[in-house]
Structure formats: structure tokens, C-alpha cells
Specification:
- The structure holds two protein chains of two kinds.
- In chain A, helix 3 runs antiparallel to helix 12.
- Chain A contains 22 helices and twelve strands.
- Chain A is 62% helix and 9% strand.
- In chain A, strands 6-9-10-3-11-12 form a six-stranded mixed sheet, sandwiched between helices.
- Chain A is elongated, with a radius of gyration of 37 Å.
- Among the domains of chain A are: 199 residues, ABC transporter type 1, transmembrane domain (ABC transporter transmembrane region fold); 238 residues, Rossmann fold, CATH 3.40.50.
- By secondary structure, chain A is α/β, with parallel strands linked by helices.
- Chain B has two domains: 315 residues, ABC transporter type 1, transmembrane domain (ABC transporter transmembrane region fold), CATH 1.20.1560; 238 residues, Rossmann fold, CATH 3.40.50.
- Chain B is 64% helix and 9% strand.
- In chain B, the strands form two sheets. Chain B has a six-stranded mixed sheet, with helices on both faces. Chain B has a four-stranded antiparallel sheet with strand order 2-1-4-5, with helices on one face.
- The longest helix of chain B has 54 residues.
- The radius of gyration of chain B is 36 Å and the shape is elongated.
- The two termini of chain B are 49 Å apart.
- Classes of the chains: A alpha/beta, B alpha/beta.
- At the A-B interface, helix 3, helix 5, helix 7, helix 8 and helix 9 of A face helix 3, helix 4, helix 6, helix 8 and helix 9 of B.
């Protein structure tokens, strides 16, 4: 690792910026396709199936118009009819089976309908499968990527922001791909029908196609108008809910302040605003709602009019006119669907960008190119040698910190908030990158050890304690095969956790929810101790919890800490007097520097910062506080 | 709101009864509904003109008459008229839906504001939010979509079958059997799709929860080198979601295939039987074509039948849930008696008050009596759950006390208009709740019109001045998620200012110093003394340092007063108070430690 190279300052704000996709981003689509590549066989099959299904779909009206009306009923089919050979085929069936042609047409119609149903279903399934699987893979890749980002990333980016990328944004991509699939299902029959129509009458077909730009224009205007109104109604509705929610949460204060009328008035205002937008939305939507079908029906009228004149010239048959009227819907519908899908497409573009932004976020903890393998047992000596560290270039958090902890020694760290205590222990677990030759474990530079190896030897108990889904036992063992149930029980017993665990309905097999709602704060702390003890790390790092815990549990915890640290190199960010007194030495940090280090008694005698802190924290008489305490 | 699989379905009579309750809200707007229903009928007749005139045109062509100008003009005219009428009809009905949901929201909000602790011990805020959001929107959808679809279905059936009967009664009768088939399949698949989508929602929310909880604990996960285990665990949640998602896709796709196929039975019947009629010469070619169009008209609404049924069922449940709230009487009634003074002097008199919460077996307050003279300051102490807060709430009728047990200035609290009582008796509750509004609106919450000076004055008395001065926006600082998050102590002082600014004849502080350090508390208590010399103050606290200066101290236990008197008297008494004093004097308070470290 290069010691002199400074980290590029990262723009975390970028991660929080609003991305609103406004353009069709082809690069993004192409990149997305990479996740579909493993399923390309299924996708190819799907493409073939959609072509077959579309052709079958077009054949159905042809049987009614060209086969039944023209051929069977009127016996006047024109030789150049684009009937896919259905007329001859139908006659063959009738001849072979010896049945009337009409009956044969019915059989054919039924068979094609069934074949269409099967092919359509098969087409959709062979399409959905790859899409679902591809996005499942993408989501997993994204999760894997996020799971391995370093602490510095999570310090700066809110979990909520990241989470929605895994959930909502991947969902939006699904909508995108499904939308594209729907469009394929609409446009392929469109083109097949178009080919048939062109074969019958070019002029009429082109005339009908002229209606499409009108339809597209109206659809576009409608979508644009409603997009705005949708946003407004959603916004006002969410304001309404927020207002209600807050009013309920603070109802007592509302009632005590006699504000009911005033708040109702304010709620009414938002409610009215919402109704106004809903009203406008309803007006636009109802105007558009019947537009497409009306346009299609007018087109039917025009087909009849034109068809009659062609019929007179014997250039079209009655069946062909009927076929045109039946195709009208197939011609217009794709445009409407396209309109429906555009919003989704654009929204999904933004989602895609957010996902790839996260996937491209390459912030990592640097690992040594040739990591040193640790011996099976470490002595447990830790040395900090002139450690300087800053999260960003401007503010040094640790400034020339040097000290050594002997194997088995217990060191308590105290200091005001912001003095660098947490940073110190985070560096020991290599949660942040720092320069080489600064921290040593048994004389070995920390940066030469792989972080995962290191973390197995440095047991960290943090304040924000995380419970994993699974049983109590799972939470103690954490997938380590060496931790048998016996060993877990042993560990739990040592840290005073066995008693409460035994009282749980299923003992060590009681399932825990991730937030551990079924455990109290103190019990969770004890469980964390058991977990770390079972792993038996050579170095223990403990950030003592400050939360209020009842006196009884407090005593259990004190005792557990004592047993946990016995004979083990331990670094404790201490908040309790007893913990400090029991430590071998106390390190006082102040603004990133070592202010004092020594035993409790030595430091008290020195009458420095520690003595002041000590008197403030532990010997204060509430009524006679020193003047300085609130001055800062 | 996510649909849940365990949503109850009501039996038909209960469903109708539940929906019938809505007449109270729909009634005032029924005119729009009538107009809509009439207009839909007219529109349907004009819509039927398209197949009718198409048949006419084709019949003419078949007969060798190629002038179809009039039928075609008829089609275009009918389409234009139908477009206008049907758009109007839809708009009328949707407007009714909007008005009804507006009224429902207003009524809901208003009703909830009148409820108190008893109501909210039964219903959570989350539950109420679901009803306000999901249930009202279901009613709105019932009217704007359900009613419209139902009307369309009825008219389409009547008009469609009417015309078909006219063309060929026998063929029409043959078309009837497939209809129930379409209907029941539609209903079946709507149900299956509902269940599938509920599954998808559940698994999706699992996925969200999993991600959220995992990322929240990322530091521990990395510290314990659990990344690979967690990725594997996520993969299984992810797979579970993909599985139900695929299943939902399968159901949807199957329906897209089978629904048109069922409908195609009708087309097949027309083709076979109708075709033979045409060959017989009993049916004209144009009428044959019109049959296909009419059948489409009739089948289309049947395809959404399942959706309609589902909509009515869910709205029925929603309506029942809403009326559960609407039918609930207001917890606290405002029916003032005569003779209560308009300005309070400030005496409180509690006479043999006993109270138990509904459903509770033990009494929260047990035959308690105490008296406070105007201008006195009293303190109430006692363990958590000893009944202190219950007692305070009865003084301002957040909980209604039994008749003739709580008196203010000699009159029962129920005799005062609620507005007067709560304006002149200011209670600052234990939980320091702040609204997501500017700080100044929070302080002068009861009267937004107060001057800035008064707000600063109250803030100063509550020792909040320095804190506010540190904010760039000062009093305009927005509180809450989108603004500044205040610490527990700052919140408490802000709510304290909200109480102090009212200069009420009686001020009740329910444990308002618990997160404030003792020095600040001393200062505020001094301010209280200065400001409220002639006024009554009731303090609840766990700290001896708060209570010691009161004119009288009451110690409560299990709803009764077990000790009372001045600080010195109680110390001499060697009871609970004296013990508390000893513990607090010797041990200091545990939360002092943390605070001092932050300050130093």
C-alpha cells in the first residue's frame, strides 16, 4: 500500500442527489442486458414464441372474415387474399373429414385459439423467467457490493438512501423490462396485422396509419398533463396524511392547547387543495378515457365508407372490409400502451442510474497484496506508534498518538466526546484505511494483515449492537463450527447470560428478531459478551454502553466485563468508574492526543485532566457544580 | 397500503349493511350519481348504434347498394355524441367519489380530535393512519371505479342482449351459457391474483426489512466477519421473493391466455350457428358481423367482474372499519354547567377521588383527597405507576373524573367550558412532543398570534435562549426530521416554554425536568418562583431537588397519598421521601455522568 498517496475526496453528496431520468439512456439498457445474458436461450425461445403467437392472433379474425364470410358464405374470395393459406387448409380439412366447410372453420378457429393461448402463455413465461432471475442476480450483486463497502461509506451515506436502491430501484427495473415485454407483445401483432392490411389495400392502410400520429399526440399531451397532476395529488395526499399523523401523535398537546379548530382548518385547507387537483385530474382523465375507442369507432365508419366504394369497383371483398374493421383495435392499441409505459420507462431510467451508481462506488478498505498469515495464537501486544488519522483532510482526529499495551493488559480509555476514542478502536479493527507502520500487533504492521484475518483476532463489542436473525445459539456461534452448543453455554454462563437465556421459552434455540425486541438492553449486552467470548479473540475491544440499565443487570454486566477481560489484552472505552478502577492503566484522550496515561491512582495523584474529569463525573454533588461545566 | 392475505371477507348481508352506512356520506352528493347513471344509459344506446349501423352498411354492400353515406355519418355522429355523454357521465360519478372522500377525511380528522386516552389505548395511531389512507381510498375507488364498472356492466348486458335478441333470438340464447363461465373465471382469477400480489407484497417487505436491518448492523457484521453468511442469507430472502414474483407472473399470464379463450367460445358459437343461419338465409351477413361486435360489448365488462366483486368486498370491510371510528362517541363532552367563574383564582380541590381505567382490576386513583390554595406551589412524588399522571390528567379533563370529585375554584371541572378549562389550567405533559414546525410555532402553539417578545421571554424563562441563539434560523428553526433534531433536554425545555408562555392561573408540570440537568433546573425553578408568585403551580418530579422548595409535597403510592407535608417534615418522617433524599444525595444520578462528560 502506498503510504503517501492521499485518498481522493469522495463526493458523497452525489449519492444523495436526486436523479431524475429524462432521456432514454441506451448505455444503461445495454449494461442492464448483461444480467440477462445467462438466460439468453430462454429469451430466444420467447422471441420465436411471440412471433408465432402474433401470427395466430392475426389468423383468428381472418377465419371469420376471409374464410367464413368471403369463401364459405359468399364464395367469392379474391385469389391474392393474404389468408396464410387458411382457405385452402380449411377446404382440405372439410374434404378429409367429410364435414361441411363451416364446421371445419369452427374446428380451425378453436384450434388456433388454443394454440394462441398456449404460445402466448409460453412466450410470457419464457420472458418473465429470465427477467426475474436476471434482476434477482442483479439485486444480489448489488447487495454483495454494498455488504463489502467500508465504514467510511456508511458514515456518510444514510442507510435509507442505500436501501431503496436494493428494493424500489430494482423493482422499477423490473417494471421497465416487463414494460418492454408488453410493448413487444403489442407491436409484433401490430406489424403482422399491418402486413396483412397492406397486402389487401395499401391506400386504406396508409389512411388509417395517419390516425396514429393524432393518437400519439393526444396520448402524449394527456400523459404530460396528468404527470403533473398526479404528482400534485400525490403530494397533497401525503401532506394530508402527514398532517393527520402529526396531529394524532401530538393530540394531547393539541387538546391541551385547545387547537382543535385551528388544526382542523389547516387540514381542511390541504384537503381542499387535494380535491382541487383530484378534480382537475378527473376532468383530464375522463376526457381522454373514451378518446381511443371513439377514434377507433370513427375509423370503422371510414373503413365502411371507403370499403363500399372499393367493393363497387370489385377491388375489395366484404370479408376484407370486415377484416379491416377487426384490425383497427390491433392497430391503435399499441400506441395507447406505449403512452402508458413511457412514464414507467423514464422512472426506471433514473432507478437504473441509481443502481449503477451504487455498483460503481469502488470505495474499499485496501488489503495487503501479500497478506501475512497470523500464527495460531497471538501474544496480544498492541502498539500505536505516532498514529495520525483524519476522516477528511481538514480535521485530524488522532494526532501523534503513541502507546503500547502489553499482552494481557487491560487499558481503559477516557476522554470527552469527540476526543477520538471511537476512532482509536475502529482503527484497531482496520475499519478505515490509515498509513503503514503506525499500528502493530505483536510487532506486525496491521496493514500487512488481511482485515478479515485481523477481525477474527480482535473481538469488538460496539455500542450499537446488532442481532442476527436466528436463534440465541446462532447469535453466539455466528457460523463458527468450533462453537458447539456446549461451548456457547459455557461462554454464556461465564458472562452471566445463561440465566436469562434458560428462562426463555426455547432456551438457546429461541429465535431472535433482528432488532432483538424480545431482549432488554442489558440482556443484549450480555449476549454480545457471550458472542465475543465464544470466539475467544486474543484482543478485546469494548465500547461500554452508556444506556440506562437497571441496577441488577448493571452488576451482572460489570462482573461479566471483569471475567471477559481476564488475561486478555483489552481496550475499553469506559464510562463507569468501576471499569476504570479495575483497568491496569487509563489512557486519557483529549482532542486526538494522549493527554495522560497511567494507573488510576497515579493519574489522580498527578492532578491533571483525569483528576478533573474524575471529580466531575464521579464525585459531583448535584447542588455544587463547578462553574466551568456548562460553559463550553 | 399493502393488501393483506388475512383481510376478512364479509358475508353478503353484512357487506350490504356495511356499505349502506355510507349513505350518510354519499347522500348529499347523490344528484351527481343519478346524473351519471342516466348519462351512462344514454351513452350506451349511442354506442350500440355503431354495430347496428355497421350491420346496415354491410347488408347494403352485400345487396349491391354501395351508397353507405348515411349509415357512416350516423356512426360518426353517434360516436361523437357518445364520447361527450360518456365522458360527462364518468366525470359526474368521479366527482361524487372525490366529494365523498373529502367529506370522509374531514369527518375522520374531526372525530379523532375529540378522542382521548381511552380510544387510543384501543386503537394505535398506525391503525388510524391505515384507515385514513387505505380505507378512505378504497371507498373512493368503490365509487369512481366500482360503481362505474357496475353501471357499465348492467347497461352493456341489457342493451347488448336486447339488440342481439332482435337480430336472432336463438343465437342469443346460445350465447348465454358461456357468460357465467367468464364471470366465475374472472372472479376466481381476481382472487388468485389478489392472493398472489399479497404474497409478493409480503416478500417484498421482507426484502426491505432484511436490507434495512442488515445495513443498520453493517459495522457489527464486518467486525464479526459475517459478510459471506449475510450475503447467503440475503440470497435466500431474495430467492423467496423471486419465487412468489414468478408465481404471480404465471397467474397473470395464464389469465391473459384463458380469459380471451373463454370469451372465444362466444365467437365460436356465432361462427358456427350464426354462420349456418347466414347460409340458410335467416341471418344477414351484416347482422352476423354485428353479433361479433355486440358479444364483445357484453363480454368486456364480464371480464372485470371479479375485480368489481373484489372492490365491493374490500370497500365493505373498509366502510366497517371507518364507521367503527365514526360511531364512537366523543370521549370528553363539552356541556358546561352554570355559575363557573370566567377567570380562575387557582384553587384545586380533590375530594375522595377514585378512578380505574376501563378494564383494569386495580384502581389507578384510590380515594384520594388534596387541596391547593391559590398561589401555592405543590409537588407530587412517587414511583412510576403510582397514579401521578392520571391525577393530573383529570384536572384538565384529559381523563374525565367521576362527578363531584375534582373541583377548581369550588366548581366541578365538568362545569367549565372545555376551552376555558384548558386555557386557564396549563398542563405540560411528560412526553416532550414537538411538531414538525418552526420552534416559535411550537412554543406559542396555543395562540399563534403572540408577539415575538413574548416567545423570547418564555424561551428565556425555560433556559432555552442560548440554544435558540445558536441556531442560524433562531426562532424560525424547523423542528423534526427535515429540520433540527433537539436533544431530550432541549425538547423538554421547549415544551416547558410552551407551558410558561400561557401565564395560566394554574400550571401543571408533569415531570418536565427529567432530562434537564440540575443546574438548569434550579434556574428554571427560580424563574417559576419569580413569575408565578400569585399563581398556582403543581410539579411532579422524581427529584428531591425539584420538590424541596414546594409549599407542600405529596408522595403517592398505588393511587393514594402516603406522605404529605413540607420538605423538613417529610425528612423527619423517615419514610419514602427521606429514603429517596438519602439515595439521591449519596449516589448522585446516573445520568449526570454522561452529561458532565459531554459538557467538560
Amino acid at each position: 500500500m502506498n503510504t503517501t498517496q492521499k485518498k481522493n475526496p469522495r463526493d458523497y453528496a452525489m449519492f444523495d442527489a436526486d436523479i431524475s431520468g429524462a432521456v432514454l439512456n441506451l448505455k444503461l439498457l445495454r449494461r442492464l442486458l448483461k444480467w440477462l445474458v445467462p438466460y439468453k436461450a430462454s429469451l430466444a425461445l420467447s422471441t420465436v414464441l411471440v412471433l408465432i403467437a402474433s401470427t395466430l392472433q392475426v389468423m383468428l379474425p381472418i377465419i371469420i372474415s376471409l374464410v367464413a364470410i368471403d369463401h364459405i358464405i359468399r364464395g367469392e374470395s379474391s385469389s391474392d387474399s393474404p389468408d396464410f393459406g387458411l382457405i385452402d387448409f380449411n377446404s382440405n380439412i372439410a374434404d378429409t373429414l367429410g364435414i361441411p366447410e363451416l364446421v371445419a372453420a369452427c374446428l380451425l378457429y378453436g384450434a388456433i385459439q388454443l394454440a394462441w393461448a398456449f404460445c402466448g402463455h409460453a412466450h410470457r413465461m419464457t420472458l418473465i423467467g429470465p427477467v426475474i432471475n436476471g434482476l434477482r442476480d442483479l439485486r444480489l450483486d448489488l447487495f454483495r457490493h454494498l455488504e463489502t463497502r467500508p465504514s467510511s461509506f456508511y458514515d456518510r451515506v444514510a442507510v435509507g438512501r442505500i436501501m431503496t436502491r436494493v428494493t424500489n430501484d430494482v423493482e422499477a427495473l423490473y417494471e421497465l423490462l416487463r414494460g418492454l415485454g408488453t410493448l413487444v407483445g403489442e407491436f409484433v401483432p401490430f406489424f403482422v396485422a399491418l402486413a396483412v392490411m397492406l397486402a389487401i389495400d395499401v391506400q386504406l392502410t396508409l389512411a388509417l396509419l395517419l390516425a396514429l400520429p393524432i393518437l400519439a399526440m393526444v396520448t402524449y399531451l394527456f400523459r404530460r398533463k396528468t404527470r403533473f397532476l398526479f404528482r400534485q395529488t400525490r403530494q397533497t395526499l401525503s401532506n394530508l396524511n402527514q398532517s393527520l399523523q402529526e396531529n394524532l401523535a401530538g393530540l394531547q398537546v393539541v387538546q391541551l392547547s385547545d387547537r382543535q379548530q385551528h388544526n382542523l382548518d389547516r387540514y381542511t385547507q390541504i384537503n381542499e387543495k387535494n380535491r382541487l387537483f383530484e378534480h382537475r385530474l378527473a376532468r383530464v382523465e375522463t376526457l381522454y378515457g373514451a378518446f381511443n375507442e371513439s377514434l377507433a369507432q370513427i375509423a370503422i365508419g371510414l373503413i365502411l365508407y371507403y370499403g363500399a366504394s372499393q367493393l363497387m369497383n370489385i377491388t375489395m371483398t366484404v370479408g376484407e372490409v370486415v377484416l379491416f374493421t377487426q384490425f383497427v383495435t390491433m392497430l391503435f392499441h399499441p400506441i395507447v400502451v406505449l403512452g402508458e409505459q413511457t412514464n414507467i420507462l423514464f422512472r426506471a431510467m433514473a432507478s437504473g442510474e441509481r443502481i449503477f451508481q451504487a455498483l460503481d462506488w469502488d470505495e474499499i478498505i485496501h488489503e495487503p497484496s501479500q497478506p501475512v498469515a497470523l500464527p495460531s495464537r497471538l501474544r496480544g501486544e498492541v502498539e500505536f506508534r505516532n498514529v495520525r488519522f483524519a476522516y477528511d483532510a481538514t480535521m485530524p482526529v488522532l494526532d501523534d498518538v503513541s502507546f503500547t499495551i502489553a499482552p494481557g493488559e487491560k487499558l481503559a480509555i477516557v476522554g470527552p466526546t469527540g476526543s477520538g476514542k471511537s476512532t482509536l478502536i475502529r482503527l484497531l479493527g482496520r475499519f478505515y484505511d490509515f498509513d503503514d507502520e503506525q499500528i502493530f500487533l505483536d510487532g506486525l504492521d496491521l496493514n500487512r494483515i488481511h482485515s478479515a484475518d485481523l477481525r477474527r483476532r480482535v473481538g469488538v463489542v460496539l455500542q450499537d449492537f446488532h442481532i442476527f436473525s436466528g436463534s440465541i445459539y446462532d447469535n453466539i456461534a455466528l457460523g463458527n463450527p468450533k462453537v458447539t452448543l456446549e461451548r456457547a453455554i459455557e461462554a454464556a454462563t461465564i458472562v452471566n447470560a445463561h440465566d436469562f437465556i434458560s428462562q426463555l421459552p426455547e432456551g438457546y434455540h429461541t429465535p431472535l428478531t433482528e432488532r432483538g425486541q424480545n431482549l432488554s438492553q442489558g440482556q443484549r449486552q450480555l449476549l454480545a459478551f457471550a458472542r465475543v467470548l465464544a470466539a475467544d479473540p486474543e484482543i478485546l475491544v469494548l465500547d461500554e454502553a452508556t444506556a440506562n440499565i437497571d441496577t441488577e443487570t448493571e452488576l451482572l454486566i460489570q462482573e461479566a466485563v471483569e471475567r471477559l477481560t481476564k488475561g486478555r489484552t483489552s481496550i475499553i472505552i469506559a464510562h463507569r468508574l468501576q471499569t476504570i478502577q479495575e483497568a491496569d492503566r487509563v489512557l486519557v484522550l483529549e482532542q486526538g492526543r494522549v493527554a495522560e496515561i497511567g494507573s488510576h491512582e497515579e493519574l489522580l495523584a498527578a492532578n491533571g485532566l483525569y483528576a478533573t474529569l474524575h471529580s466531575l463525573q464521579f464525585q459531583s454533588d448535584a447542588d455544587s457544580l463547578p462553574e466551568t461545566s456548562s460553559a463550553s | 397500503m399493502k393488501p393483506t392475505t388475512d383481510e376478512p371477507t364479509l358475508p353478503p348481508t353484512a357487506l350490504l349493511a356495511s356499505l349502506w352506512q355510507l349513505r350518510r356520506f354519499i347522500g348529499p352528493h347523490r344528484r351527481g350519481l343519478y346524473i351519471g347513471i342516466t348519462a351512462f344509459g344514454i351513452a350506451r344506446i349511442f354506442e350500440a348504434m355503431v354495430p347496428v349501423l355497421t350491420a346496415v352498411s354491410i347488408n347494403r354492400m352485400v345487396d349491391g347498394d354501395f351508397d353507405v353515406t348515411y349509415p357512416v355519418l350516423g356512426i360518426i355522429g353517434a360516436v361523437l355524441i357518445r364520447y361527450c355523454v360518456v365522458s360527462f357521465a364518468r366525470f359526474s360519478v368521479r366527482r361524487v367519489a372525490l366529494k365523498v372522500s373529502y367529506d370522509l377525511r374531514q369527518a375522520f380528522f374531526n372525530k379523532l380530535q375529540q378522542q382521548g386516552s381511552e380510544f387510543f389505548s384501543q386503537f394505535s395511531i398506525g391503525d388510524m393512519m391505515t384507515r385514513a389512507v387505505a380505507d378512505i381510498s378504497l371507498i373512493q375507488r368503490l365509487i369512481s371505479m366500482g360503481t362505474i364498472l357496475l353501471i357499465i356492466m348492467v347497461y352493456a348486458t341489457v342493451v347488448g342482449f336486447g339488440f342481439m335478441l332482435y337480430y336472432s333470438p336463438w343465437l342469443t340464447l346460445l350465447l348465454l351459457p358461456p357468460m357465467p363461465l367468464v364471470f366465475f373465471y374472472a372472479q376466481y382469477s381476481a382472487k388468485a391474483m389478489g392472493e398472489a400480489s399479497a404474497q409478493v407484497q409480503d416478500r417484498l417487505s421482507d426484502l426491505g426489512t432484511h436490507t434495512q436491518e442488515n445495513l443498520s448492523g453493517i459495522r457489527t457484521i464486518q467486525a464479526m466477519v459475517q459478510e459471506e453468511n449475510e450475503i447467503a442469507r440475503f440470497a435466500s430472502t431474495n430467492q423467496a421473493y423471486a419465487d412468489v414474483f414468478y408465481e404471480q407472473g404465471r397467474i397473470n399470464s395464464a389469465m391473459s391466455s384463458w380469459m380471451p379463450s373463454l370469451a372465444a367460445i362466444c365467437s365460436l358459437t356465432i361462427l358456427g350457428y350464426g354462420g349456418s343461419q347466414v347460409l340458410d338465409g335467416t341471418l344477414a351477413v351484416g347482422d352476423f358481423v354485428a353479433f361479433f361486435m355486440f358479444v364483445n360489448m357484453v363480454v368486456q365488462p364480464f371480464r372485470v367482474a371479479g375485480f368489481i366483486v373484489n372492490l365491493f368486498q374490500r370497500a365493505g370491510v373498509a366502510s366497517r372499519r371507518l364507521f367503527e371510528v365514526f360511531d364512537r362517541p366523543a370521549e370528553i363532552t363539552d356541556e358546561p354547567g352554570d355559575g363557573a367563574p370566567v377567570e380562575l383564582a387557582g384553587s384545586i380541590d380533590i375530594r375522595e377521588l377514585s378512578y380505574s381505567y376501563p378494564g383494569a382490576t386495580t384502581k389507578a386513583i384510590d380515594n384520594l383527597s388534596l387541596g391547593v390554595a391559590p398561589g401555592e406551589t405543590i409537588a407530587i412524588m412517587g414511583r412510576v405507576g403510582s397514579g401521578k399522571t392520571t391525577l393530573l390528567k383529570q384536572m384538565v379533563r384529559l381523563i374525565d373524573p367521576p362527578k363531584n370529585s375534582v373541583f377548581i375554584d369550588g366548581h366541578p371541572v365538568a362545569d367549565y367550558p372545555l376551552t376555558q378549562l384548558r386555557t386557564q389550567v396549563a398542563l405540560v405533559p411528560q412526553d416532550p412532543f414537538l411538531f414538525a414546525e418552526p420552534l416559535k410555532s411550537n412554543i406559542t402553539y396555543d395562540d399563534p398570534a403572540r408577539s415575538l417578545e413574548k416567545i423570547w421571554e418564555a424561551a428565556t424563562s425555560a433556559d432555552l435562549k442560548d440554544t435558540i441563539s445558536d441556531f442560524p434560523d433562531q426562532l424560525d428553526t424547523l423542528i423534526g426530521e427535515r429540520g433540527v433534531t433537539l436533544s431530550g433536554g432541549q425538547k423538554q425545555r421547549a415544551t416547558l416554554a410552551r407551558g410558561l408562555i400561557r401565564h395560566a392561573p394554574i400550571l401543571i408540570l408533569d415531570d418536565c425536568f427529567s432530562a434537564v440537568d440540575t443546574e438548569t433546573e434550579e434556574h428554571i425553578l427560580g424563574e417559576l418562583k419569580r413569575l408565578r408568585q400569585q399563581q398556582t403551580t403543581v410539579l411532579v418530579s422524581h427529584r428531591v431537588s425539584t420538590a424541596r422548595h414546594a409549599d407542600r409535597i405529596y408522595v403517592m403510592d398505588a393511587g393514594r397519598i402516603i406522605e404529605s407535608g413540607r420538605h423538613e417534615d417529610l425528612l423527619a418522617n423517615q419514610g419514602y421521601y427521606a429514603e429517596l433524599e438519602r439515595v439521591q444525595r449519596e449516589g448522585g444520578e446516573e445520568d449526570d455522568l454522561e452529561r458532565l462528560r459531554v459538557n467538560s
